[in-house]
């Protein structure tokens, strides 16, 4: 008989791993949420067990259930995660970089982070131009298909994961109700914009996420893994005319390089495709 170390509890270890798998699957679903049956399929955990664990996670605020019975990560878990140390993320420095870019361009600058399968807006700054883009609040969490920054994160995903997010665009996208495009047409526009990222290394478009609004979004390269921060510019369409695009691209690239320095990433992973 093999003697187990003192304090070793295989059942407890299994519970923790199952909870972690369920939370990870819910995180991947983003603000759209995930159904119980989908969680069971993705995690391979029996449906009754998933149901029981969801109840326990809801009781402590780590999971919330939407009116449509889908599950999302809860506010309590979000507060716990924010308490984790993040020495490489200097939000004040990011704010300064973003404000400088807004001052240079006159437009709205965002610094966004991919989290919980969605786009989390760390920073928003405004330029001097009096007509501004539709506001996304600092601290807001949006679906990957609902913003130019989100489309950069979407482009990082495997094709089948991209399609899963695109299939939910009608539910997640705030502008569809007043867009002239049909749902299928809009999804195809999103798909084409994301596909163009493969060649360009950044996202740009007019009327892609919100009618009348243009945007340019660029990832912050990292030495290992996929980019987790995006810097973007947004404004009304007239602010993104061809004669300004080269200059906007240069200024945005410079801001991205500054963020790299803040993260300690340097120039190790720069992408030559980002030249216009």
From TrEMBL:
PROSITE patterns: HTH_ICLR, ICLR_ED. The keyword Glycoprotein does not apply. One of its GO terms (biological process) is negative regulation of DNA-templated transcription. Coiled coil: none annotated. InterPro entries: GAF-like_dom_sf, HTH_MetabolicPath_Reg, Tscrpt_reg_IclR_C, Tscrpt_reg_IclR_N, WH-like_DNA-bd_sf, WH_DNA-bd_sf. Residues 76-265 form the IclR-ED domain. GO terms for molecular function: DNA binding; DNA-binding transcription factor activity. The keyword Transcription regulation applies. Keywords: DNA-binding, Transcription, Transcription regulation. Residues 13-75 form the HTH iclR-type domain. It holds the Pfam family IclR_C. This is IclR family transcriptional regulator. It comes from Enteractinococcus helveticum.
